[in-house]
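Hi,

I'm pasting everything inline rather than attaching a file, because the server keeps stripping attachments. The sequence lines come first, and each chain or strand is labelled.
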Amino acid sequence: MPGPIDYSLINHQPDLDSAGWWEGTAAHRLLVPSCEDCAYRWFPPGPVCPSCRSMNLGWHEAEGRGVIAGYVVVCHPVLAAFREAVPYVVALVELPDCANANGEPVRIGGVLVDDEDAAAIGAPVEVVYDHAPDDAFVVPRWRVSGEAADGWRFEN
Amino acid sequence: MSRVSGRYCIVGVGETDYSRWSGRTTLSMACEAILKAARDAGLAVDEIDGITSHQTAAGDSCTNDQVATALGIRTNVGVDILGGGNSIGQLVHQSVGLLEGGHCEVIAIFRSMNGRSGVRMGGGAPTARGSGPGAARPQLASGINQYQIPWGIRGAPTRFAMEAMAYLHRYGYSTLNMAELAVTQRQAATNNPKATRREVISIDDHQNSRWITKPFRLLDCCQENDVAACLILTSAERARDLAQPPVYILGGNARASSYRPDWVWALEDVNAGWSKHVGERAFTNAGIDRGDVDIVTMYDNFTTTPMKYLEAFGFCGEGEGGAFIGDGRIGLDGELPQNTNGGQLSEGYAHGAGYLIETTRQLRGQADDYCPGWADGEHSYDRAGGCRQVRSREDRRRDNWDNPSPPTVSFSVGGGGTAQGWSVALRR
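And the predicted assembly:
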């Protein structure tokens, strides 16, 4: 298990384009920006649909299960908040229930609850939530929930 | 071909020492670099009537008007832009536009940074306790950082590791390929007196260096240092009267962007998204083919980045970059010498300005190596004896060492990651 993350050392400042997304995580809902006109989905949130350029936007609620599409292992801490957490895995998670009509995936990052040994490209994961002190903000993380069928692990 | 291709030139270059603690202001260093470049060009400082620069959003440099005031000159135009590695090529093309538009006659481009002793990349503003993890105060997470900092992503190694890992995964390369690039470029740096790192390294040294963010070890990462660098540009007509042989700006890309909004996570763009869609445009607008290029510089913030740019700009096929950089191909006497100053991995980190200074000197035949007559174009071509001057493509092909010619055409790519970048083609 990676060491503790001290979220009090992060001055978290959502903006008016992202506030709804962070309200979602606070309610343990994983939201993906979604275009009300063309149903395109993407991440992270922005003011306009990057596909049809509509500004009529909403949210698609993800189930919170996905597959690791990529990962890195942070060994040298740069952030004070993560000083005790190293080594930790940052995973890029593909959300199958959020894919676009053309199959284009939507991906969200996050720190794995698990060690590097559990990480593999192709491994299934499920979302869990970390609360900053006083619930100042709530951060989605990922837990490996099974074996990768045809997984790839970084070696050497 | 662009209608301004070949009409404007780099006529002067200069830089301060690379150091880990300059003990100086960025203003002081910028002035030194500009004075050196003006002296190199044979220009009076008063003749500079345009100044342009870049700095990161952390505000890590001085501005064009501060420099003009410090040097006691009046300028007709001054521009500072925001950016890091995506900037120096943009400033070159923007300066050509300003010259072409008649806004100025002689323009100085500078980059000045206390990148180690002051504002470190990813470190935020410095405090009395430094800007690393020792500076235990809340770190602002806004804008794109609100989706990075809470997930432990901060600083270039964590931001660029994801696409590097995807590259290894997709094309089956290992960190031994990355080691090969680091070792080859370091070999060139042994003949660069100003390089931050000049000691020879082996594949084992690379493999034994400590992990930073997997797949990056310490020897996959570029230097962090304090430095200022300057390029002076003017018209081809004006250049005829100056001290140095002109180096003509042929073209390239100014600052192209990726189309994906989620750049840190855009695995589709593992081959460097912005560059893939502008590669052809760079050569068309410079009026050259890849086969005309004698030497390249490929932005080496990390060892994997040049592999991807070599692919994106068509010097090799998709997925072939990791193999292309092997077998000495990018060495000083290889098929396509790359980052002949040692790159940012070895010479030092000037956010890309060092590449254009190096290519300018190489095209002039004035690589600043250990040969006593380098400034007059006198080189031994003895690699074990400290010579870094590269021979022309033709001389390399014929294996000619007898009074060889310097390279004619260089092609430089900068930017670092998938988001934004530039390219610059130069000809002597």
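The first helix of chain A runs from residue 19 to 26.

If the labels don't parse on your end, tell me and I'll reformat.
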